[in-house]
Design brief:
Elements (H helix, E strand, L loop, with lengths): L1 E10 L2 E7 L5 E6 L3 H11 L5 E5 L6 H9 L17 H10 L8 E2 H7 L6 H9 L12 E2 L12 H10 L6
Parallel strand pairs: 1-4, 5-6
Antiparallel strand pairs: 1-2, 2-3
Helix pairs in contact: 4-5
């Protein structure tokens, strides 16, 4: 059985739910006001795995590390360990997201091209939307081709705040 360790962290954007496995690899991060989305993603990603969520105090130091991110040490998320389920394509998109440098953005089409799938911008968007480890797997760094802040599961206002926090200057 997969044991998922869970804690919450107060942030400038609201309470953040942090979930790791027993090896302290991030399995999910989401805003507490989006618990229904988090429950759905966990059920989808671990449909074939029996799992149990249990409360834990700062599992693997993840709460402290993410608090450091919100305090301004944005580079701390670059090396945080993650593990999740998903289709091979989703995992490929999520790995590519981690290569977008802090303070920079990429369009969905650019990301699709980088993955060798030009024309798959919508599929990249769908994989981006299914990302269970927001912030650390920085789906907020992907924007629309016109430069608009399209969709973010936590809300566009949070996406804008995260981009500004990381040094991306919005027009």
């Amino acid at each position: 059985m997969l044991i998922l360790l869970e804690d919450t962290l107060p942030t400038p954007l609201g309470m953040l739910r942090i979930i790791t496995d027993e090896q302290y690899r991030l399995r999910a991060i989401d805003w507490e006001d989006h618990d229904a989305r988090l429950d759905k993603l966990l059920s989808q990603h671990y449909a074939r795995t029996e799992f149990r969520r249990t409360a834990s105090n700062n599992p693997g130091g993840m709460c402290h590390k993410l608090a450091d991110y919100f305090a301004g040490n944005t580079a701390i998320i670059n090396d945080l360990p993650t593990a999740t389920e998903g289709t091979p394509f989703q995992r490929e998109v999520w790995a590519a997201l981690r290569t977008i440098p802090c303070g920079q953005v990429m369009h969905y089409g650019e990301l699709a091209t980088r993955l060798g799938r030009p024309g798959a911008a919508r599929a990249v968007g769908a994989a981006n939307g299914a990302n269970p480890i927001s912030i650390v797997v920085p789906c907020h760094r992907v924007i629309g081709s016109s430069g608009t802040l399209t969709g973010y599961a936590g809300g566009v206002q949070r996406k804008e705040w995260l981009l500004r926090h990381e040094g991306f200057l919005l027009l």
